[in-house]
Give the backbone structure.
Amino acid sequence: MQIRRLTEADEEVMRRQFTEAFGAFDPPEPPVPLFVEGKRWWGAEVDGRIVATALDREYASWFGGVRVPTAGIGGVTVAPEHRGAGLLRPLFTAVLAEARDRGALVSTLYATAPALYRRFGFETISSLDDVRLPTHPLAGGGSTPVRRATSADDQAIRAVHDRAAARENGPLARTGPLFTESPTLRVSGVSVAERDGEVVGYVSWDRGRGYGAEGELLVGQLMADDADALRSLLSLLSTFASVTPTVRIRTSGVPSWQHLLRAAHPETVSSAPYALAVLDPGALALPRVHPGIDTRLPFSVDGRSLTLAVADGSGHVEPTGTTTGGRTFTRGGLALTFAGAATSATLRSLGHVEGDTADDVTWDLLFTRGPVTVHDYF
């Protein structure tokens, strides 16, 4: 068996393998290229044939108000004749090692089989959901003018997204080589809320098929800087009520717009679990912390003894020469702690943390930041 980087010469066999793994599908128009800057394809080759694949996407994720370099893993396939043969371990070892070498501190993926990825340190921290609700009750007023977006609004739309994402924990930052495509390209329309010449919100929507009872409006993104802009965009969606009595919105957690609804709680239609692994314990030092916290927290993971030193609103992780005191993380426990997805008490109950409990309150104060949310499927 050989683990190697894949090239355009491998594309035909890769696409056949994707169809075997994920089923037949209609290709998007225009097609999404496999080999571009920011994508690194890896494969396992047996007897001269590619029998397993994985993709590392170069991303950044918002956590604690900062962008964290991220390896987004996708395109994981194993040919049916080679499933169960242990190919994923050496494949993931190579993919994640190179991601760490290029500076990725965490890795994320959509875990179709949680146990499969848990052995590599991935733990579920959130989900990307499709929810359905009646269209007409979305009308909620709002005085911010709304207009149709054009490609000239691309940067303004991305700026709205990143302002909203920076207030949350988990979303990808829509910057870099994998976010060069216009937000208006693959949807029926994007409408923006604009005030005093500045775009302060947007909604992307697909009209879908049918009208009347079976009609459904598909909303991919709904974000704004403030409540009035959100209300204006919700009211825009409500105008489709006569032809699409329901609207399906892609969302995560409890989004801002949900707090403005006056009727009808969303019904979850589908949910894609989102998982994270920490590639470098130094990631713990990145998210901003309260400037009043000054502490040193010893911990160990994968047999390494380390200390998280925090002072003046920032921190760093340094090696220590002793294993005395502090807590011991599993790799999954480190992931859940970084993401702020579980308290110390929960981690201990799951066996993800052992050792001294004296610092539990401090760990929770540093890392329990609220729910993790995601906006992009990959």
Notes: The helical segments are 11-22, 88-101, 114-118, 154-166, 227-238, 331-339, 344-349, 360-367. The chain is about 20% helix and 35% strand. Residues 5 and 42 are 4 Å apart (CA to CA). The longest strand covers residues 49-63.
